[in-house]
Write a structure and sequence with these properties.
The complex is a heterodimer of chains A (281) and B (314). Chain A is mainly α and 281 residues long. Chain A has helices spanning 2-37, 40-43, 59-67, 70-101, 107-118, 122-135, 142-148, 150-167, 170-178, 183-194, 196-212, 215-220, 229-236, 245-265, 267-280; strands at residues 238-239, 242-243. Chain B has a single domain (75-313), classed as MetI-like fold (Orthogonal Bundle). The longest helix of chain B is centred in the first third of the chain and has 32 residues, at 84-115. The chains are: A mainly alpha (281), B mainly alpha (314).
């Protein structure tokens, strides 16, 4: 009796709500997947239940990879993502180290400024920034995004790394320096390895934010073949209200795969990165 | 064994210089500024400079075709105050930014409390349910675009199949419908962020206190209010403020789902600024002014957030 009572309370208080959340949060992905595999003849037939897949085809993926610029968009996205991540991570390690470990005048002010920079959204800056990008002659080049993505990556990554560097006791590098290591050796050999989880979090997050960015890519590289995956998919695969749903969903799947894979391997880094702002404070 | 050779006069001078540089580099303030310089250089060039340039542009009639532009004072701002589309934009942004947040907070909190219990495949589910927040929003919005399609929507199909509706729902066809649809998609994307942030906070809740309260006869709700809530309060406040700021300044979801339509009735600041400043006529001056109208709200929210974060640190 007690057992069945416990079971029903677990059912109603745990499993049913979890099922609701699972359906709510994952259904759009399920839909994306089945539409990307569904033959066009079935897609438009409203007599058949659209929620199942009775036959499947890879035609939409073939079309996407051979008849559209998708491969080029993927290359653009990868170049920009790696460039921006590398640049941001290097500057943020240095910035986070300075803010987290050095005592100097203006240190608090610099930390506050970084935090506020983190809160300035791209929608506030994109119009004047497009003029800056044009003035520097960067329009429609990879540098347009490699140099502007760090404006939202550096504040985030520096803030996260500052928190990590702060948790490492100062005595560690003082000991190393008494033993004859230079400050740079102490930083490179002792402090940085200890902060590696933080560096990994910052890197993974920078990768994801760059890969997913939309507004700057739309405005600074939105024409011709320099588009990124999100921009190219949204602006080139939807033409004059004629939706090619199959290839669109195939592009949405393929464009999500790199971040989904990175995410699968580094869930914990994601979680600690995500909560860095909220928890570490 | 000395490795340094006996220095001649000509060698001794550069050596001393090197010593001085080395000594100088050992001073923490110098190193700190040196380390921060690459980051600040990028932020000054591509964040501070455009911010002030934006204020200037918003005071001119600059267009994409006429990049010099004349100084017009506050004309752009005044014009927007008389623009009906801008009125709708302000309302939409507040609905979108503030109404969605309580839903995300409550759903995220519930999901976090669920995921904090022990059950099979907990880690797999925790990972899978964060996906809406991880994948590119522009791409997942495409899935929502089809879910909301006037003809192909599976929601309409299901409701028709169950006999609840006669004809398809125009999810994005009217202003009210479109705004509700946008909010639901936004809640979908934001709930996992709340859940995971809160879940991380729940790890700090002392288990012994929970057990003690249970022995004292406190029920679930009482235990939540007395033991759990005080511990995660900080995270709830900070996550909520972050979420309001990001939603308020959103772009992609609205751009993909409605592009501000039907009839410019569902714009938020970001999409309207894009349409006026870049997309349509290229009126950079007015576009910049639309963006800057966000600033007071963002500044107030940021100030609250900063004060709160500082108070948590102390």
């Amino acid at each position: 009796m007690v057992g069945s009572n416990r079971l029903s309370s677990r059912l109603f208080l745990l499993y049913l709500p979890l099922a609701f959340f699972t359906v709510f949060l994952l259904f759009p992905f399920y839909w994306m997947l089945i539409i990307s595999l569904k033959p066009n003849s079935l897609l438009l037939n409203m007599k058949i239940n659209p929620l199942y897949l009775t036959q499947f085809t890879l035609e939409h993926y073939r079309y996407l990879l051979t008849n559209t610029d998708f491969p080029r968009w993927a290359l653009n996205t990868a170049v920009v993502t790696f460039g921006a991540t590398f640049l941001s991570l290097t500057s943020s390690i240095l910035m986070g180290y300075a803010l987290g470990r050095f005592r100097f005048r203006g240190g608090n002010l610099a930390g506050t400024a970084i935090f506020l920079a983190y809160l300035i959204p791209p929608t506030l800056l994109f119009i004047p920034l497009s003029q800056v990008v044009a003035r520097f002659g960067l329009y429609n080049s990879y540098w347009a995004l490699i140099l502007t993505y760090p404006t939202f990556l550096i504040p985030f990554a520096s803030w996260l790394l500052m928190g990590y560097f702060r948790t490492i006791p100062r005595e560690l590098e003082e000991c190393a320096m008494i033993d004859g290591a230079s400050r740079f050796q102490a930083m490179w050999r002792i402090i940085l390895p200890l902060a590696l989880p933080g560096v990994l979090s910052a890197g993974i997050f920078s990768f994801t934010l760059s890969w997913n960015e939309f507004l700057y890519a739309l405005v600074f590289m939105g024409s011709g073949e320099m588009k990124t995956i999100p921009v190219g998919t949204v602006s080139d695969l939807i033409r004059a209200d004629v939706f090619q749903w199959g290839p669109l969903m195939a592009a949405a799947m393929l464009g999500s795969v790199p971040v989904a894979i990175a995410y699968m391997f580094f869930v914990d880094q994601y979680v600690s990165g995500l909560t860095a702002g909220a928890v570490k404070g | 064994m000395t490795t340094a050779p006996a220095g001649t006069v000509t060698q001794a001078v550069p050596l001393r210089l090197r010593e001085r540089v080395r000594h100088w580099l050992d001073s923490e303030p110098v190193l700190a500024y040196l380390f921060m310089s690459p980051g600040w250089l990028i932020l000054l060039l591509f964040m501070s400079y455009p911010f002030f340039l934006g204020i200037w542009i918003s005071l001119t009639d600059r267009t994409v075709g006429l990049p010099s532009g004349e100084f017009v004072g506050f004309r752009n701002y005044a014009e927007l105050l008389r623009d009906r589309t801008f009125h709708l934009t302000v309302m939409n942004t507040f609905i979108y930014g503030f109404v969605t947040v309580p839903f995300k907070l409550v759903l995220g909190l519930l999901l976090a409390l669920l995921l904090n219990q022990a059950f099979p495949m907990r880690n797999v589910l925790r990972a899978a349910l964060l996906l809406p927040w991880i994948v590119p929003t522009a791409l997942s919005s495409l899935a929502w675009l089809m879910l909301y399609d006037a003809v192909l929507s599976p929601f309409s199909w299901l409701l028709k199949n169950w006999g609840l509706i006669e004809s398809n729902i125009a999810f994005l066809g009217t202003r009210t419908n479109a705004i509700i649809s946008l909010c639901i998609a936004n809640i979908w994307r934001g709930t996992p962020f709340f859940a995971v942030a809160i879940l991380a906070g729940l790890q700090a809740v002392p288990q012994e206190l929970h057990e003690a309260a249970a022995i004292e006869g406190a029920n679930r709700v009482q235990r939540f209010l007395a033991v759990t809530l005080p511990v995660i309060k900080g995270i709830l406040v900070i996550t909520t403020l972050f979420s309001i700021i990001w939603t308020f300044a959103d772009f992609q979801l609205v751009y993909v789902l409605t592009k501000g339509g039907p009839a410019n009735s569902t714009h938020i600041f970001g999409t309207y600024a894009w349409q006026i400043g870049i997309g349509g006529a290229g009126k950079l001056g007015i576009g910049a002014a639309i963006s800057l109208y966000m600033f007071p709200v963002l500044a107030v929210l940021s100030a609250i957030l900063l004060r709160y974060v500082r108070s948590q640190e102390a």
